[in-house]
Amino acid sequence: MTSDTDVSYFRFSLLLKEIDNMRCNPDVSTVAMALIQLDGMEEINERFGYLGGDKVLKEFAGRLNEVVAHNGHAFEITGTSFALLIANPLHEGDAVSGAEKIARIASEPVLIGTGKARVHARMGLSILPDPAATAEELLRQCELALSAARRHGETYRVFTPNLSDTGEGSKSWFDVDAAIEQGEFELHYQPKIHLRTGCLIGAEALIRWQSPHAGTIPPSYFMPDITSSEGVRKMLKFVLSAALGQGVSWIGRIPEFTLAVNLAPKNVIDAELFSVVENALEESGFPADRLVLEVSEDVLIQDEQTIHIQLNKLRTRGIRIAIDDFGTGHSSLATYKSLPVDQVKIDQAFVVPSPSNERDRRIVAAMVQLAHAFDLEVVAEGIEDADIMQTVLAIGCEIGEGFHFSHPIPAAQFEQEWIEHFDRARGETA
Q1: Which SS3 state, helix, strand or coil, does residue 125 take?
Q2: Which residues contact 183 (CB under 8 A, 6 or more apart)?
Q3: pTM over 0.70, yes/no
Q4: What is the end-to-end Cα distance of the chain in Å, rounded?
Q5: Which residues, at least 6 apart from 322, have a Cβ–Cβ distance to it below 8 Å?
Q6: Pairing state of beta strands 185-194 and 200-211?
Q7: Rounded to whole angstroms, what are the CA distances from 159 to 6, 138, 343?
Q8: pLDDT at residue 225 is higher than 70
Q9: Measured between alpha carbons, how far is 76 from 3 in angstroms, rounded to an integer?
Q10: pLDDT tens digits for 117-133?
Q11: What is the CATH number of domain 176-429?
Q12: How far is residue 174 from each of residues 31, 209, 219, 231, 267, measured CA to CA in Å?
């Protein structure tokens, strides 16, 4: 898929093919690659909404193409990750020069209404055929260099063999235990609203890291390292303990209230998952049928048999299962027919443009119809304004969440603005 700014949306497998294609060109002797991660998108989305975030990404993509000029290609890998391939760099300095240009264009502000948004780019660089010998090796070296750059607070890092020797790339870049013990993590809560009645019916618990050195750090920056490390189980224990402990008082005031917690891919296949969840339920006294565990759609295709056993065990306990980012993965209809699932969450990529884009509106309508055919409840993510809310309501979505209702907010603020408001409204109608 090619965007308006001609930065192609590439998965890693296609990126590897493109590297090989460049190598097959007899006029290309070397290929330099920069793996780029944008920091700051979480704050931009919270301040300006997802449409503002999309504008920033499109602007960056356009600027990135200008850096490429005539001797390379730029690719979007995920929403905040890009890859830049440069053919025939004269030496390592060419790649570094490119990285410095990327850092400059990323930091240039983007006007959104009367405000300005800025992102920061971190990069990992390497060159093929030396030190990398294959496309996969080139990608891996860039990943290691990017991980090192993030860990040390650098704008970019050029791969060197010692990064592989020390195994830096395979370790989480900070100590999860220490961060939890020092109280650096906290949960924010985003309300879930019944679209027909406008009533609060639940919340999603979202992790935030308050670093003493760098301030508030969004999940997109630190969670990828945690979820690929042994810290993932410790993080889940913390989230469940904090969320369920807090949620007990809320369900006493709103009986139909549900609390959603996200599971990382490693959580879903962890043999200890059920015991971790069960212990949290027992310690908090939170009822199992009010807990919703959210699983990304992409996870469903990894190990279907194991995942089916895990989810079925949780659901037998009374816990609800939701599929997050519905529509963005590669799961089949047979998967949804067999998996023990209660709810799907339609990804904001489809929801946000639905009022003005007939194609997206039809896609959302088809997703809702499909979900209802499987007797699944439907949540629309990314409701940013009244037009989006009315569109998804007319289509048939039962539940919504998004900035139109509230940004994710700390527990005390959530209780004051939402739980107590519900109490007052109920008292007035009694």
Answers
A1: strand
A2: none
A3: no
A4: 54
A5: 260, 292, 293, 294, 295, 341, 342, 343, 344, 345, 379
A6: antiparallel
A7: 28, 9, 44
A8: no
A9: 9
A10: 888 899 999 988 877 77
A11: 3.20.20.450
A12: 32, 12, 14, 10, 19
Location of structure tokens 């193409």: 65
* pLDDT, tens digit (0-9, with 9 covering 90-100), for 6-62: 444 455 677 888 888 888 888 888 889 999 999 888 888 888 888 888 999 999 988
Structure tokens at 214: 């760098």
- CB of 202 closer than 8 Å to CB of 292: yes
Q: How many CB atoms lie within 10 A of CB 305?
A: 7
Count CB atoms within 10 A of the CB of residue 34.
Answer: 28
Among 3.40.50.11480, 3.30.70.270, 3.60.60.20, 3.40.50.2000, what is the CATH number of 8-170?
Answer: 3.30.70.270
Q: Is 175 buried (19+), middle (13-18) or exposed (0-12) by CB count in 10 A? A: exposed
**Start-end ranges of CATH 3.30.70.270 in the chain?**
8-170
Tokens of 14: 């296609």
Contact between 156 and 123 under an 8 Å Cβ cutoff? The reply is yes
